[in-house]
Write a structure and sequence with these properties.
The chain is built from 12 helices and no strands. By secondary structure, it is mainly α. Helix 3 crosses helix 8 and helix 5 crosses helix 7.
């Protein structure tokens, strides 16, 4: 029996956010490598895999328009470049718990902003569900502490994470998950490379150690190629407000993966947070998406929750 769009989108969203959560330990192993040059290598490797897929999928189809190129560039600059840079800087001022508790508000923002950008109104149950998920994410992280600079940087990271999804929604009906994933990845390479040359010069690149190379390959292939495709397909099937609920899984899976790697058993707060996130996701997935009755039914692409252009 084929899966329903909700079940299929839910599995994809959960898998993508689980990969992101499990990447915490991997990113720590790559933290000693130059930031900008390392990210340029990561996205260069990912682009080499995604671009042939996009070109094959787009055979005979229209390429991105000038307006779409502009949105893709903004998406890449915020959701990829801005997110990675701000996250690293935020962690230098605040602990992972403090940053995670701020970024954990992503489901709530997506539940509110997603329908508004699509010309509708946020559903009450969707907002409640997103609030439960955000509370669970913050509980799992223990809220944490940090200075004012760290809080501002964490808020910037939160904005970039939300932008990674919401800016993509109008692009998905025409370009599809493969096209959006490939083009934003390609655009991130010169952004990171240019910044690396300008700011780090010759220190931007060096030969990675064995553990750094393994981390780089994980970040480039599962974390970028696979997770991007899964997440953007989940956005198509569920819409931003419901897919955003799965962002609450990031701190949960990060804690559980840390326990699996021998960093200690999950704390009581992490287990409580997991229960809250699960409850919020279940509540949110039962919600009818705002404006669905008014939207024309033209296939899975229309289920993205917004028009082709804002």
């Amino acid at each position: 029996m084929p899966l329903s769009p909700t079940a299929s989108g839910g599995l994809r969203g959960a898998a993508a956010m689980t990969m992101l959560g499990c990447s915490t330990g991997v990113s720590a192993a790559f933290a000693g490598y130059p930031l900008l040059g390392g990210q340029a290598l990561r996205y260069l490797l990912a682009a080499g895999l995604l671009l042939p897929l996009a070109l094959r999928a787009a055979a005979g189809a229209p390429r991105p328009t000038a307006r779409e190129w502009g949105r893709l560039a903004l998406l890449s600059a915020t959701g990829l470049v801005g997110f990675n840079v701000l996250l690293v800087q935020a962690l230098r001022h605040s602990g992972p718990a403090g940053v995670g508790s701020v970024v954990g508000a992503a489901p709530l923002l997506m539940a509110v902003l997603g329908p508004l950008l699509a010309g509708g109104r946020p559903g009450r149950r969707a907002v409640v569900a997103a609030g439960v998920v955000a509370a669970g994410a913050a509980t799992a992280q223990g809220f944490g502490a940090g200075d004012a600079v760290g809080t501002v940087l964490a808020l910037g990271t939160l904005g970039c994470e939300v932008g990674f999804s919401l800016l993509a929604v109008p692009l998905l009906p025409r370009l599809g998950p493969v096209g959006v994933s490939a083009w934003v990845t390609v655009l991130a390479v010169p952004m990171f490379a240019g910044a690396a040359v300008l700011l780090d010069g010759r220190a931007a690149l060096r030969v990675p150690s064995g553990s750094e190379l393994a981390a780089l390959l994980y970040l480039a292939v599962p974390m970028t190629c696979v997770a991007f495709l899964l997440w953007y397909r989940a956005l198509e099937l569920l819409g931003a407000e419901r897919a955003g609920l799965f962002a609450g899984l990031v701190p949960i899976t990060a804690a559980l993966s840390g326990a699996a790697l021998g960093e200690g058993a999950p704390r009581a707060g992490e287990l409580l947070g997991a229960v809250l996130v699960g409850a919020g996701v279940c509540l949110g997935l039962r919600t009818r998406r705002p404006g669905r009755a008014r939207a024309p039914r033209t296939g899975p692409a229309r289920a993205a929750g917004g028009p082709v252009a804002p």
